[in-house]
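Exercise 7b. Backbone tokens:
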């Protein structure tokens, strides 16, 4: 069955960095675009970043452009989200999404 397992979340101070990973299994990873979403308390889930099948095309929410970088390693069936210059408003549960499936999410908290 399809599984998406996120990791790398945690508590970080404003201005800090985190790298999220999403390990995929149960489907042909290289056939699907990959996406990161996030959901903050009391807010709707929003799309943060997407990467195309071969990683040549990426898109970002305006709120994270220039700070976050999405990438993928098809050999490892893993997608990454490098998050720099983190702000308190980046605090949320971050989810991996692909092949009509969601991961369980990983909590990112940005606070001093």
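Sequence design result:
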């Amino acid at each position: 069955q399809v599984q998406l397992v996120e990791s790398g979340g945690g508590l970080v101070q404003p201005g800090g960095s985190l790298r999220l990973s999403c390990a995929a299994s149960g489907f042909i990873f290289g056939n699907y675009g990959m996406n990161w979403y996030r959901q903050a308390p009391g807010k709707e889930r929003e799309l943060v970043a997407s990467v195309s099948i071969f990683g040549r095309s990426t898109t970002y929410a305006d709120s994270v452009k220039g700070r976050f970088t999405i990438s993928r390693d098809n050999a490892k069936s893993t997608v990454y989200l490098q998050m720099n210059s983190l702000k308190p408003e980046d605090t949320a549960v971050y989810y991996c999404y692909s092949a009509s499936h969601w991961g369980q999410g990983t909590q990112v908290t940005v606070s001093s």
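Instructor comment: The longest strand covers residues 18-25. The mean pLDDT is 97.
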